[in-house]
């Protein structure tokens, strides 16, 4: 059985970034992946400007006298065009251009108006203080974003601040999703005792959309090899990747793998992880296939741990492993060596440290463990049980918004 790391590396090795690109307005570009680096064509700031509302003057004048004659003003958008002489200052506002003859700004709360246009500086700042210098944040030609960067809301603001109105991005990844299983019915429909509601497709659809992909939802497919084959063929024609759940184990009605082997190729099957062992990866011609186990927790966890890195690379995004953090186990956690375990946990900040507790029963059919939990406790394949007080790694279930 492959380790989780080997499985991810195998998929990342096979999968290449897309080639189709488009140019779009930055307002439409959140969650899209850059297909070309963005270089700054401006200096940021593009002119020396004041960081405070106050008075601008020449530091050398402070040796003589700390009261200055105010000879003009510089407002944001309305610069002062004159030149300061000895003993003079100007009123200046935050963001306003600092004229060449000014080298220091004193905040107005550290000054006092002695007479109209005669300003006393009560607390003299260091020479050069309170001025944001041209190019101190970014210089013309600096690479701000590399190819493969997925744009966040803040990035859209950064692009706007650089005067960039459009960006070249990869075409969104198209991912087909469906569920297999004769026991499945749609939410809202009448159900018999031996049936369950399809939940995987709803979780997977929502998670894939949040990853920035275009989801092609192909619905429910019965445990019938001919129907499954037809659905795969249809999906492969339309999508870059297929994510389906169920039918990847060894049961009498588990046809998914056999069908892929018939019309495509299974690259690997089974990963040493819990939940999610029977995960399958392969392709049908140019469409990648991710066969997730049917158990709801297994489907969700394998999407996050295995399929997501591969799908992100396929969408053009630069792969960066998910962030994990350390936490102290607040209680003992049972585990057998052999498979990497992703236990659902509740992470809390208590008494000055991150502490993690079990989210309760860990059955891979129990979606409620993912509802109660806010993190996955990532335990290595080799290790056994965890004692209370041991340090473990955890991965937040809801990635923080950058
Ligand atoms: N003899 C063995 N049996 C099983 C093994 C094994 O190694 N040997 N592995 C177990 C593990 S681990 C998992 S996980 C499951 C995976 O099975 P499948 O991927 O074939 O999934 P199904 O059998 O179709 O379903 C499993 C379970 O999940 C429920 N399910 C399926 N689809 C959905 C859905 N869309 N929404 C909600 N729930 C779903 C289904 O009803 C079953 O209860 O196999 C074990 N067996
Ligand atoms: O490993 Mo299965 O995916 O636990 O239920």
TrEMBL record:
Its cofactor is Mg(2+). GO terms for cellular component: cytosol. The keyword Transferase applies. Its EC number is 2.10.1.1. It is an enzyme of class 2 (transferase). Residues 176-313 form the MoaB/Mog domain. PROSITE patterns: MOCF_BIOSYNTHESIS_2. Keywords: Magnesium, Metal-binding, Molybdenum, Molybdenum cofactor biosynthesis, Transferase. GO terms for molecular function: metal ion binding; molybdopterin molybdotransferase activity. Pathway: Cofactor biosynthesis; molybdopterin biosynthesis. It comes from the Bacteria. It catalyses: adenylyl-molybdopterin + molybdate = Mo-molybdopterin + AMP + H(+). The keyword rRNA processing does not apply. Belongs to the MoeA family. Catalyzes the insertion of molybdate into adenylated molybdopterin with the concomitant release of AMP. This is Molybdopterin molybdenumtransferase. GO terms for biological process: Mo-molybdopterin cofactor biosynthetic process.
């Amino acid at each position: 059985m492959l380790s989780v790391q080997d499985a991810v590396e195998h998929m990342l090795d096979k999968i290449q970034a897309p080639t189709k690109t488009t140019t779009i307005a930055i307002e439409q570009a959140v969650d899209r992946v850059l297909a070309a680096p963005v270089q700054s064509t401006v200096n940021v700031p593009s002119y020396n400007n004041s960081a405070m509302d106050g008075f601008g003057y020449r530091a050398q004048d402070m040796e003589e006298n700390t009261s200055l004659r105010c000879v003009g003003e510089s407002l944001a958008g309305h610069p002062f065009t004159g030149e300061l002489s000895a003993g003079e200052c100007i009123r200046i506002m935050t963001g306003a251009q600092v004229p060449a003859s000014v080298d220091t700004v004193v905040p107005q709360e550290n000054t006092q108006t002695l007479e109209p246009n005669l300003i006393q500086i009560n607390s003299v700042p260091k020479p050069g203080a309170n001025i944001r210098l041209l190019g101190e944040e970014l210089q013309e030609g600096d690479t701000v974003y590399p190819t493969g960067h997925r744009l966040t809301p803040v990035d859209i603001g950064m692009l706007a601040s650089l005067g960039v109105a459009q960006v070249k991005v990869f075409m969104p990844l198209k991912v087909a999703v469906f569920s297999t299983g004769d026991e499945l019915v749609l939410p809202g429909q009448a159900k018999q005792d031996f049936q369950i509601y399809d939940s995987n497709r709803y979780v997977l659809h929502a998670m894939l959309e949040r990853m920035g992909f275009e989801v092609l939802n192909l619905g429910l497919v019965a445990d019938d090899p001919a129907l499954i084959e037809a659905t795969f063929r249809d999906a492969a024609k339309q999508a870059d990747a297929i994510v389906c759940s169920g039918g990847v184990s060894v049961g009498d009605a588990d046809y998914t793998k056999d069908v892929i082997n018939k019309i495509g190729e299974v690259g690997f099957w089974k990963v040493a992880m819990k939940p999610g062992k029977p995960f399958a990866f392969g392709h049908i011609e140019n469409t990648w296939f991710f066969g997730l186990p049917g158990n709801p927790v297994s489907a969700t966890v394998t999407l996050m741990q295995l399929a997501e890195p591969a799908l992100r690379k396929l969408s053009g995004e630069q792969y960066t492993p998910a962030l994990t953090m350390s936490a102290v186990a607040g209680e003992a956690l049972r585990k057998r060596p052999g498979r990497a375990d992703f236990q659902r946990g509740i992470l809390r900040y208590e008494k000055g440290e991150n502490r993690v507790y079990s989210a309760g029963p860990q059955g891979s059919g129990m979606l409620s463990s993912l509802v109660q939990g806010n993190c996955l406790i990532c335990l290595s394949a080799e290790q056994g049980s965890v004692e209370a007080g041991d340090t473990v790694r955890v991965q937040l279930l809801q990635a923080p918004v950058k």
